[in-house]
Amino acid sequence: MNIKTKLTLVIGALVAMIVLLVSLSIVNLQILTATEPNSPAAGPGLQRALLWISTIGGFCIVIGIFMLAVLPSYFNKPIKKIIDGIKDIANHNYDCRLNLESHEFKEVSENFNRMAKRLSDYHSSTLVQIKAAKNYMEAIINSVKEPIIGLNNELTILFINDEALNVLNLKREEVLQKSAQDISLRNDLLRRLIRELMDSQKENKVGKTEPLKIYADNKESYFQMKYMQINKPGNNNSGSINEGYVIMLKNITEFKELDSAKTTFISTISHELKTPISAIMMSLQLLEDSRVGDLNDEQKELAQSIQDNSERLLNITGELLNMTQVESGKLQLKPRITKPIELIEYAIKANRVQAEKFNIQIEVQYPENKIGKLFVDSEKIAWVLTNLLSNAIRYSPENGRIIIGVRQTDDNYIEMYVRDFGKGIDPRYHQSIFDHYFRVPGTKVQGSGLGLSISKDFVEAHGGTLTVESEVGKGSCFTLRLKA
Fold first, then answer.
1. Which CATH superfamily is domain 144-251 in?
2. Where is this gene product found (predicted)?
3. What is the pTM assigned to this prediction?
4. Fewer CB within 10 Å of terminal CB in the chain, N or C?
């Protein structure tokens, strides 16, 4: 018997009992109405009517209470089991099963159990695939011979390969799913990696940093740190969401050693070249001495060519020596209190002959108000200004003009600048011109491509900056900024 039949019988019985009660009440009411009130049969008739009505009414009430107590429980119990089963499925408990005995819910129970079994099978197969993919990814990461560390946004270590564990001197069980910040409290190297990661995150740039020197494999090794963001597409493919970071350490020890060997070689060659070049220039001076003998015009022209090229070669060797000092970390500064005007006058004096050769007018802009002094290595900063002024002369048209000046800013910095009105520099090359050996494409003026890079190194060694403002066809302005 199904629920529909049971409900029909119960409701039908209640309706029949109510109809019986109402009918009985009407019949007895008619009888009592037809009976004389003073008749002897009136009293027993009233008692009999009340007895029947009370009996039938009480029986209906008992049946109604019984149905009220039994029916909700009869329907609520299997429904509650179904709800509990759905909650178990929602909580990923795919092993739960329903065993409803009532015929009405048997089909629901069978379908529920079939669904749970399929979900359990799917979950098991998916879990196996995830584990296999995880093991495969771990094998790939461990096969990489460079240290790799993966972090989420809370800086919890998600994965780390054997190379990173070896460099950090840690064990896998000590770091996986642990806070990198907590571990860094007792690990100096990891602390530095996390600190630079946080710094790069604040500056909104994640990229390469200065090489990291580590004692690994029983020798000093150099690693290039690189930080990468882990991003995933946002909702509806709108933008991307940052899910964490990957720290990579590339071993550049071999390249560092080659670079050191290159620096040593250049330094040695440059130093050795200065002696013969100086001898050549001394010999030229003797040839030009009238006491030795007069030279004809052709000989004078050849001697001048030799002198120009010797001076150029001497300047190049000087630049190479300066570059090797910076690269090898042997740049020694001898600061002293210096007036900016002294540096400017030195640069002008050093380039006076070259400026007169091209008929270049050099204008000096110096403020009337008293400005502060500099505590710098005057030789190095004078070299920078001399190089900037020399470049301005070479890239200016004949009969042109150049402005060299100085000003003091409100934040107590002194800025020295050299402005020319030549053809200018394409904005694409404003950063590249400070790289070693870089020359702007199409430049016909001779040079080594080292002057600006060495100048920038000298200025930054003093804690200052060297920048350029330039537009094609409007000239260039190089600004040297130092603390007063």
1. PAS domain (3.30.450.20)
2. Cell membrane
3. 0.48
4. N
